[in-house]
């Protein structure tokens, strides 16, 4: 597609106004929304207000007057519509690793007669590491790969809606129905889908996700945990922290869980990180998710078309079968990505050979896609990646 046509598409884009609400350095095409979202313009002021006006002036009183204590629930309610959930069904706090641990452990206790955990061994490492850790801690559990295709004796199935490596997407309603029909509990990880498409985990038993990728909550932004209302009275938080108690300020000697989603709060909210997420959610309150998904599919399809056969495509070619990223394989993928970044096109690399490009529809345009593909083709054609400096591995790839 010619660049002029891409500029025309940008001019007609119903989401184009959102681009100005992000801080984007001049000369950079930022295709890493699937790793760390760009900075919303409102974030700095929201964090400043938390630090100077709330902490600085209200001091400890801000737990009441600024709503700090309720943040895990209030932010959960704001985030809930983005995953198809309702009020009182989502709690925000901790990290993705911790909420995965909470969700899977709670599911295991709800199915004590079953001793199998099904997961994708190729899933994001923290998901699989947490599953292996739980199995080792409790003993007697088998961790079975999804490829075995069996759920009949499983206690819990943990899967990512969108594969972090290739962007391949699971059919959430179909898989959820199959798992639950087999008597197992379904846990979805939506880290690589929330904020890039319409997500609906309402039929699942549990769901987890992060807020620093497409949602743009910022580095270290807290994760979230969805618990289906049918489990609120029976699911057990295996990390029974003070803030999940039914009456934390009664300071009772024994633990008595809250009757609702609050039982999955563990400890003190990360107030400064939550301020960044709060600012980002101001944007998402106004974003039409159907338009986000439509643009996501158009952007990724255009990139695949423009790159052509220059690299081996690792992502599904059909737009509906992938998330908002495109991945390619090349044995020198790391060096190619370093060369691209030096020329203003930012993607990332995942071992052993994957180049990943994440397209955040709120701030990436069609002309960006055209220019990124042209730069990639130039790096490949001229073999610019062969420069020796690109062979030196950085700590974060």
UniProtKB/TrEMBL annotation:
Cofactor(s) required, per the database record: pyridoxal 5'-phosphate
GO terms classed as biological process: anthranilate metabolic process; L-kynurenine catabolic process; L-tryptophan catabolic process to kynurenine; NAD+ biosynthetic process
Cellular-component GO terms for this entry: cytoplasm
EC primary class: hydrolase
Annotated catalysed reactions: L-kynurenine + H2O = anthranilate + L-alanine + H(+); 3-hydroxy-L-kynurenine + H2O = 3-hydroxyanthranilate + L-alanine + H(+)
InterPro entries for the chain: Kynureninase, PyrdxlP-dep_Trfase, PyrdxlP-dep_Trfase_major, PyrdxlP-dep_Trfase_small
Pathway(s) it belongs to: Amino-acid degradation; L-kynurenine degradation; L-alanine and anthranilate from L-kynurenine: step 1/1; Cofactor biosynthesis; NAD(+) biosynthesis; quinolinate from L-kynurenine: step 2/3
Entries under Gene3D superfamilies matching the protein: Aspartate Aminotransferase, domain 1, Type I PLP-dependent aspartate aminotransferase-like (Major domain)
Keyword Hydrolase: yes
GO molecular function: kynureninase activity; pyridoxal phosphate binding
Protein's UniProt keywords contain Hydrolase: yes
Enzyme nomenclature, EC number: 3.7.1.3
UniProt entry keywords in alphabetical sequence: Hydrolase, Pyridine nucleotide biosynthesis, Pyridoxal phosphate
Family designation: Belongs to the kynureninase family.
Stored PANTHER family: KYNURENINASE
NCBIfam families recorded: kynureninase
Entry function: Catalyzes the cleavage of L-kynurenine (L-Kyn) and L-3-hydroxykynurenine (L-3OHKyn) into anthranilic acid (AA) and 3-hydroxyanthranilic acid (3-OHAA), respectively.
The protein's name in its UniProt record: Kynureninase
Species for this entry: Nonomuraea jiangxiensis
């Amino acid at each position: 597609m010619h660049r002029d046509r891409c500029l025309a598409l940008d001019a007609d884009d119903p989401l184009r106004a959102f681009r100005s609400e992000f801080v984007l350095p001049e000369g950079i095409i930022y295709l890493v929304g699937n790793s760390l979202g760009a900075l919303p313009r409102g974030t700095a002021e929201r964090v400043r207000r938390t630090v100077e006006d709330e902490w600085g002036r209200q001091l400890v009183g801000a737990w009441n007057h600024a709503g700090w204590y309720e943040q895990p629930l209030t932010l959960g309610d704001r985030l809930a519509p983005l995953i198809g959930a309702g009020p009182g069904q989502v709690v925000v706090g901790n990290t993705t690793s911790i909420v995965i641990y909470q969700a899977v452990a709670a599911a295991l206790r709800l199915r004590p007669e079953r001793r199998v955990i099904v997961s994708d061994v190729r899933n994001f490492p923290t998901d699989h590491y947490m599953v292996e850790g739980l199995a080792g801690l409790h003993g007697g559990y088998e961790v079975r790969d999804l490829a075995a295709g069996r759920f009949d004796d499983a206690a819990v199935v943990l899967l990512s809606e969108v594969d972090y490596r290739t962007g391949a997407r699971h059919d959430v309603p179909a898989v959820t129905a199959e798992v639950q029909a087999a008597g197992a509990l379904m846990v979805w990880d939506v880290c690589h889908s929330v904020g890039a498409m319409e997500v609906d985990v309402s039929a699942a038993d549990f769901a987890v996700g992060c807020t620093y990728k497409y949602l743009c909550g910022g580095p270290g932004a807290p994760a979230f945990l969805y618990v289906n209302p049918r489990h609120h009275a029976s699911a057990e938080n295996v990390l029974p922290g003070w803030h999940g108690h039914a009456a934390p300020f009664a300071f009772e000697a024994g633990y008595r869980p809250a009757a609702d989603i609050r039982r999955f709060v563990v400890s003190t909210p990360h107030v400064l990180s939550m301020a960044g997420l709060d600012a980002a959610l101001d944007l998402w309150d106004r974003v039409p998710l159907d338009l986000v998904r439509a643009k996501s599919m158009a952007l990724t399809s255009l990139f695949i078309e423009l790159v052509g056969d220059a690299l081996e495509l690792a992502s599904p070619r059909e737009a509906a079968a992938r998330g908002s990223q495109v991945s390619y394989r090349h044995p020198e993928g790391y060096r190619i990505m370093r060369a691209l970044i030096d020329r203003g096109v930012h993607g990332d690399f995942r071992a052993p050979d994957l180049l990943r490009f994440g397209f955040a529809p709120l701030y990436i345009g069609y002309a960006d896609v055209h220019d990124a593909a042209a730069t990639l083709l130039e790096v490949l054609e001229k073999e610019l990646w062969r420069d020796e400096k690109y062979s030196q591995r950085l700590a974060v790839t």
